[in-house]
Specification:
Structural class: alpha+beta
Radius of gyration: 37 Å
Distance between the termini: 24 Å
Number of helices: 17
Largest sheet: 5 strands, mixed, barrel
Shape: elongated
Strand order of the largest sheet: 5-8-7-13-12
Helix content: 40-55%
Strand content: 15-25%
């Protein structure tokens, strides 16, 4: 009688459990090392756990644009505000629409939170306007600080302060201002006179009177009115600063206030030459040649043509008419001077920038132009103490769930519970390190729904172990010994685990796509832990089970192993039928009867 053929040795993780265990061990060491190298040893916390500020912005209808508040513009505003705040390095700045005309901005407590709050409130449109006149914000203000300059990339740069201001006060005489304003409003100048020096200009500011303009035209009257308002404007007064320039159209000349160091200045500005939407990108960088901070700008194709045109016109004029003001929310944030036409779609602003001021200006230029204007509807602050209480409650709930799962495993699976608990520990290490690294890499922040997702994942992971253990027990009940049972149970358990995890991952993916805000944290965590469940079961639980099956404790069916054939009601092995002396065949006899 031919001897039965020996079964083939299992391959992969079944035949080489040490290789699979080495892979997951290397992954754990690498992730842990990366966590310490990046100095991000804890996951970032969201606003509901770390505390922070929640701001509700309401879109305002503008005259002549009744349909401006629509879904497209609201979504565009959400994207710009989100990039603007996240550009400051704020962890998990959450921006989303609520209803038709509201945007909710959640800023967790942390680095640059104050700056982010300021920039969220700065929601008006951004414009580049030519400077027509400049004066100190108050009559007794000190002399101005130097202005920064703008130049094409690679061209020589002039020195400046990086803050709004001009090296000398411009002509403030009625005749000079009237001439400039009339030209800006496309009307003949009332009179023409050369611009006086800085000292003469200062005296003119104090003593000048409106130029006699007999029978002025409508445009000349408008210029005179603007000039009178400019003379009366006090930018040191907060109420006047808040009202100046509001409602001005891009094509109109307007007044504006801005900070010069620690003092305020005021400007008469011409019609907007370039809009903020024409800026493709801007950022504060350090000039490697001079070791100074500058702001680089890149314009769109249309913006490049507009910028070349306005700088070409300004380059032929004297101070301050050779400056353009960058105006955001009615406030001048910078007014660099121009010495030549800037073509090519790239330019840079140089001057006395610090790293912070350069990066702030670059951020405003890059993300400052919103399609709508907004007002703060409400501001709510969540204290860190309240967030800490919520985190504590979430951790307690997770601990209770984990303890219940461990008790169940110990009571029902006994020795197999050791394999399940170690697998859960491996899954926890992978989850924790990945969440910590994602906080540094993509700005992922752990919020309360995400903690709930991690708690739910404990049950999903434990369910995979139970499926495999029950398949092994089924094989033992059929009369097989442990080592064959471990290998025969794996293919069937593997299919069930993959199908179950696929359904969980699909649900998490759909939930992440169709929801917004904190619910996405739950979906993301659920999807991540579902993927890690597959990794742990394939690379750790199955290989470690293969190794444990070779030990005497498990292979002998010890009562505390959880694999005792008697407790499982295993079928006894069948023996061959006996033959009688006459050659007749009797019924088979099992082991107990023998």
């Amino acid at each position: 009688m031919a001897a039965p053929k020996k079964g083939r040795r299992p391959t992969g993780a079944q035949g080489r459990p040490g290789r699979a265990l080495a892979i997951i061990l290397i992954a754990m060491v690498a992730l842990t090392a990366g966590m310490f190298l990046t100095k991000q040893t804890t996951p970032r916390l969201g606003i509901d756990l770390a505390g922070g500020t929640s701001i509700t912005l309401k879109a305002k209808s503008e005259p002549g644009k009744p349909d401006a508040i629509n879904e497209t513009n609201m979504n565009t505003a959400v994207g710009i505000i989100e990039r603007r705040v996240n550009g400051l390095g704020v962890s998990e700045a959450e921006v989303q629409t609520q209803g038709r005309d509201h945007i909710i901005v959640n800023i967790p407590k942390g680095t640059n939170e104050k700056q982010a709050r300021e920039q969220v409130g700065t929601t008006a449109q951004l414009y580049f306007r030519p400077v027509l006149a400049f004066a100190d914000g108050a009559p007794a203000a000190p002399a101005a600080t130097p202005s920064p300059s703008a130049s094409s990339s690679g061209a020589p740069k002039a020195e400046g302060s990086g803050k709004p201001g001009s090296p000398a006060t411009p002509s403030s005489s009625a005749t000079s201002q009237g001439r400039v304003l009339s030209e800006a409003l496309k009307a003949p100048a009332a009179t023409a006179s050369p611009s006086p020096s800085a000292s003469e200009s200062k005296k003119a500011d104090d003593k000048a009177a409106p130029a006699p303009t007999p029978a002025p035209s409508g445009v000349e009257a408008a210029a005179a009115d603007l000039q009178a308002k400019f003379a009366a404007l006090d930018c040191t007064n907060e109420a006047q600063r808040a009202a100046v320039g509001k409602g001005a159209k891009p094509e109109d000349a307007t007044l504006a206030c801005g900070k010069r160091g620690d003092t305020w200045g005021k400007w008469i500005l011409g019609p907007a030459g370039v809009a903020g939407t024409d800026v493709k990108d801007a950022k504060g960088v350090i000039d490697p040649q001079r070791g100074q901070w500058i702001v680089t700008m890149q314009f769109t194709d249309k913006g490049a043509d507009k910028f070349a045109k306005i700088t070409g016109e300004l380059a032929t004029k004297q101070m301050p008419q050779n400056q353009f003001a960058i105006v955001l929310d009615g406030e001048v944030v910078s007014d660099p001077s121009v010495s030549q036409a800037l073509t090519g779609g790239n330019a840079e602003i140089s001057g006395g920038f610090t790293q912070q001021t350069a990066q702030d200006l670059g951020n405003m230029l890059s993300y400052g132009a919103l399609p709508l204007s907004f007002s703060e509807d409400s501001v709510t602050t969540v204290t860190a103490a309240l967030g800490g209480e919520q985190l504590k409650a979430g951790l307690i709930a997770g601990a209770i769930g984990l303890i219940l799962v461990v008790i169940y495993l110990l009571v029902y699976y006994r020795g197999l519970a050791f394999i399940a608990i170690v697998s859960l520990l491996v899954s926890a290490i992978l989850t924790y390190t990945i969440m910590a690294l994602l906080g540094k890499g993509i700005g992922f922040a752990l919020n309360l729904p995400a903690v709930c997702g991690a708690i739910v994942a404990i049950g999903i992971t434990a369910d995979s172990f139970i499926v495999y253990f029950e398949r092994i027990r089924d094989e033992i009940r059929e009369g097989r010994t442990l080592r064959p049972a471990v290998e025969r149970a794996w293919p069937r358990a593997r299919r069930t685990i993959l199908v179950s995890d696929f359904v969980s991952f699909l649900a998490a993916a759909v939930l992440f796509i169709v929801t917004v805000g904190k619910v996405q944290g739950f979906a993301f965590t659920l999807g991540l832990t579902t993927v890690l469940d597959v990794v742990v079961v394939f690379l750790f639980t199955k290989p470690i089970m293969t190794l444990m099956a070779r030990t005497k404790f498990f292979s002998s069916g010890h009562p505390w192993s959880g694999l005792d054939p008697k407790r499982l009601g295993a079928k006894p092995p069948l023996r061959r039928s006996r033959r009688t002396g006459s050659g007749s065949v009797t019924a088979p006899v099992d082991a107990k009867e023998a």
